[in-house]
Design a protein that fits this description.
0% strand; flat
């Protein structure tokens, strides 16, 4: 299956064209926020891992970040994180 995400290169990315001030071939599409909660694959992962585990593990955070891109073939991802990361980094517990 050849989707836009498989065929996409830095050179042909609509979102990068816009960011570079160029007119894209089509309008770029992305979610204004993380899309995880509505995805079955995210809910399945959450059955095994806590939200904090997902935030603290770079591989899991990357996996969750890319889930909407793989399912919906959008042009950009919102990094999976939360405001809690700053609270935890400052030595506070949640």
């Amino acid at each position: 299956m050849n989707t836009r995400s498989e065929a996409r290169t830095e050179r042909s990315s609509p979102i990068l064209d816009v960011l570079r001030g160029r007119r894209p071939e089509r309008l770029p599409i992305w979610f204004m926020r993380q899309a995880g909660r509505l995805l079955p694959e995210y809910r399945k992962l959450r059955e095994k891992k806590s939200f904090l585990e997902l935030m603290r593990d770079p591989a899991l955070a990357a996996e969750v970040t890319l889930m909407p891109m793989k399912r919906f073939d959008v042009d950009a991802a919102i990094l999976f994180t939360d405001l809690l990361t700053q609270i935890l980094a400052s030595g506070n517990e949640v």
